[in-house]
Amino acid sequence: MEHIFNLEFLRFDIISSISDLLWTYIVITMLVGCALYFTWNLRAVQFTMLRTMFHDLFKPSSQPVEGFTGRKITSFGAFAISLSSRVGTGNLAGVASAIFVGGPGAVFWMWVMALLGASTAFMEATLAQLFKRRGKDSFYGGPAYYMKHGLHRPWMGTLFAIFIIFGFGFSHQLVQSNTMCGALNEALGLPTEYVAVGLMLLTFAIIFGGIHRIAHFCEMIVPFMALGYILLALYILAVNITQIPAMLSLIVRSAFGWQEVAGGTVGMAVMQGVKRGLFSNEAGEGSAPNAAATAAIAHPASQGLLQSLGVFIDTIVICTCTAFIILLSGLYDEGTDGIVLTDHAMRHHLGSFGTIYLTAAIFLFAYSTIIANYFYGETNVRYICNKSWAVAMFRCTTGVVVLMGGFMTLQQTWCFVDLAMALMTILNLISICLLSRYAFRLLKDFLEQRKSGKDPVFNPDLFPEADLEGWR
Known about the structure:
By secondary structure, this protein is mainly α. Helix 5 crosses helix 16 (338-350) and helix 8 runs antiparallel to helix 17 (352-384). It contains 20 helices and 2 strands.
């Protein structure tokens, strides 16, 4: 069956070179510059409003829109969809790859980008809420829509839609499928082709049910899988508590040490930390806003705050769990990459149970991410061609791509992902910078209402000049 997916005709070396060029000279500069700019102008909202984020997570808040008869997706439902995309194999295989290539110092730069990038997540989610549209069954929106209706540049929205379909409808799915197939083969000896076919069929079972089935699935699965993984990591930390100071020192030394500077590995640590951090938390990439736009809430800024919280949960908590498990095992320089390195680290700490648990975690993480990734792709397929045949074709293509992932190497899949992330991020950051005044004003309005003792409710008359069909 492997010959069906022979991809030797693709020049992975050329794709990788283009990706490296974009990341080295453009993407990292834009990510850091925008994150600092947003953090300053939002008065570090990602830190000062943490308590509010947790408080509003399960708070019932319904958007008062006349004439909308669709089934409303809750704020938590939209948060769960975006978190299920964030919390995936990037938290397990991605962190391992970052440490394998960039060393322990990559973990530090992953933290830095998450702390700063949470402000970018606020911006893009708030704008997605502001410029969302009303569909027959639910709200919908995302970067393509705020480019079209906010910037009034439909061509820009179409270009982004193409990028995200390539990114989340193709390249990201390859990584999730590849990691799951590799994990099940490593742990249980299951043939790759059987796992790939089974995963494809399971994917079809959910994606043909529409956004409400996707939201319900994510609400049920995501909280439990994340909590279980965190508890396991806490147990491993408790058992190895005496080694934690040395591990933290190793991370910092590897990020800034003179030996690393002289050897040129600091730059690699920064690059890998930012790349794999972005793959995991998606802050600035333009993917999570597609989920944020679906929520029926009273004020756009409240969904922006929840998406900021998603970045913290994903990177500062879950990615850190994986990093600590690997570094405390001492196996990070043994020469293995991706999920195999994470598996060896888990086996070191927990014996055979570690492999069994990781296999279950990989299945839930990767499967939920495939479902959320599909939703992002479908939202943008509808932007380009809102026809039932186009959506059906994309659903079928998704299954084929998931099947293909089992027959590629890990580095081949990352090659596509890095290019897709670069293209999406560049275009999205340009758009949210141009629209930043809306998000800044929305946060100010949100805070003013809270200060006066009110539950913030958005009045679309705040922006009489804007096309806010989802709010009027």
